[in-house]
Design a protein that fits this description.
The protein has helices spanning 3-9, 12-83, 87-122, 130-142, 144-159, 163-187, 191-210, 212-215, 230-264, 267-303, 307-334, 336-341, 348-361, 365-380, 384-410, 412-433, 435-442. The chain is globular. Helix 5 (144-159) packs antiparallel against helix 6 and helix 15 runs antiparallel to helix 16 (412-433). The protein contains 17 helices and no strands. By secondary structure, it is mainly alpha-helical. The chain has one domain (3-442).
Length: 454
């Protein structure tokens, strides 16, 4: 059965699982970029190293978000065009997405060359953490183009019928990162520069593996000559902007939380949040993997007008995301000390602050996955405006507003409770504001609902 027909005809549960496992596996691989650094930095360089690393993490979110901007944006347009039987558009969309990734990567590399000190200070580095942050961030941004292209190509390969290869590409790169972290930090004593260098090598490994999809001629998409076409570029960016905002919001959350925590507890609070943020990034990556699993299914079936399959797939993703959220929250309540011990040892003050934070902050996972799935579902149908509103609400406006209020009332607990409240309000507003969101939430695979093309 041709790959496209499989997405249009095979049992929807089986198809969802076929994409879910490699998609979540690949996203977990992505989160290991930061997790590996955090574990090794925490144990090798202490709480100051953790604080410096956490200051640099928003830049990783930007690089990854840009990869998704062109990857998800291009893959959505590409899959819908396939469903509409428009093969003439497929290769030009793929080529344009890759080219835009390369151009933006070069621009960010130039930013690193001319404005690195200013960027480190802007992200909130103190005198104690400035040099460590600069060492890590400098090497990271030198490889901006590789990071962005890797994330873009991962999504494209997954949509081109090779989700397992996409997963192994990401996992292989990140396993390499963890191994090199240990070698560079503990054996070579290269400090934060070594941690950054290990992270920078990882996407090169991933790209080498992903390229085998094209070398072995397993690909349906290929690079072609293209002419400037503003409308097609706008379509790609419009489809992907919500994924970019979602990733950028993770960086904004870390940036805003760092500043708020610094004013309350200083560097030790930032170190505690570094641990919580890294655990949160893993959970958010898994939720994003669930959402990305339905993107090829939703896009091609939406393009072909098979709306019942669209709703069935998104409902499966909602069930899966909520179930995982309950599991993550339960782990935070039952095993907080163990989770902290992975990153730090023999620091009772850090342990106490972080355990308290985990028990409150992890409540956000109950609804975070549902909100992420909803945004990716809207993107997959090219409902870019709706997806962008929800992403901005969740990732920027509500975060800033609530973070200005709750810590003034509850102190550090107010910081930890900000994200759970944001996720609750986001789901309520999106379901109240958009009928397409309500339809997805209330749909039952047996009972169905009044389906519409939107």
């Amino acid at each position: 059965m041709p790959k496209d027909m499989g997405l249009l005809e095979k049992d929807i549960r089986q198809t969802f699982i076929e994409f879910l496992i490699p998609s979540v596996g690949g996203m977990m691989g992505t989160s290991l970029y930061i997790l590996g650094d955090t574990m090794m930095v925490g144990r090798g360089l202490g709480s100051q190293g953790l604080a410096a690393l956490n200051i640099s993490i928003p830049t990783i979110n930007v690089l990854y978000g840009l990869g998704l901007l062109f990857g998800i944006g291009g893959a959505t347009a590409l899959s819908i065009s396939r469903g509409q039987n428009r093969p003439d558009l497929v290769d030009s969309i793929f080529t344009r997405s890759i080219l835009m990734s390369l151009i933006v990567g070069v621009i960010l590399t130039l930013v690193r060359v001319f404005f690195l000190d200013e960027l480190v200070l802007f992200l909130g580095a103190s005198k104690a953490t400035f040099q460590m942050s600069k060492d890590y961030l400098g090497i990271l941004m030198s490889f901006s183009m590789v990071f962005i292209l890797n994330h873009t190509l991962t999504v494209m390969v997954r949509n081109d019928g090779a989700p397992k290869l996409a997963m192994w590409g990401m996992l292989s790169g990140n396993i390499t990162n963890i191994i090199l972290d240990y070698i560079f930090i503990f054996i070579f004593n290269w400090g934060m520069w070594g941690a950054g260098f290990a992270t920078a090598i990882s996407p090169m490994i991933s790209l080498a593996i992903l390229s085998s999809h094209f070398i072995r001629k397993k690909n349906q998409v290929k690079l072609v000559r293209i002419k400037p076409h503003l409308q097609e570029a706008v379509r790609i960016v419009s489809n992907g902007v919500s994924s970019f905002i979602t990733e950028l919001s993770a960086g904004i959350v870390i940036f805003a939380f760092n500043l708020s925590i610094l004013n309350i507890t200083g560097d030790i609070g930032v170190s505690a949040y570094s641990i919580i943020a890294n655990l949160s990034l893993i959970c958010a990556a898994i939720f994003t993997g669930v959402g990305q699993a339905i993107q090829p299914i939703v896009s091609i079936n939406f393009g072909a007008g098979k709306m019942e399959r669209v709703y069935e797939s998104v409902k499966l993703a909602i069930y899966c995301a909520f179930g995982l959220g309950v599991l993550f929250y339960g782990a935070g309540l039952v095993f907080p000390e163990f989770l902290v011990s992975i990153f730090s040892k023999d620091n009772s003050a850090l342990m106490a602050i972080t355990v308290r934070g985990i028990k409150l902050y992890f409540a956000s996972f109950l609804l975070m996955g549902v909100n992420i799935v909803m945004v990716l579902y809207l993107q997959s149908k090219e409902l870019a405006g709706m997806a962008m509103v929800i992403s901005l609400l969740r990732g920027f406006f509500l975060i800033i507003i609530i973070l200005m209020i709750l810590p003034r009332i509850l102190g550090l607990d107010g910081v930890w409770l900000t994200l759970p409240l944001v996720e609750l309000i986001t789901l309520a507003v999106s379901a109240g504001l958009y009928r397409v969101c309500r339809d997805a939430l209330i749909y039952r695979p047996q009972g169905g609902l009044l389906l519409r093309s939107r």
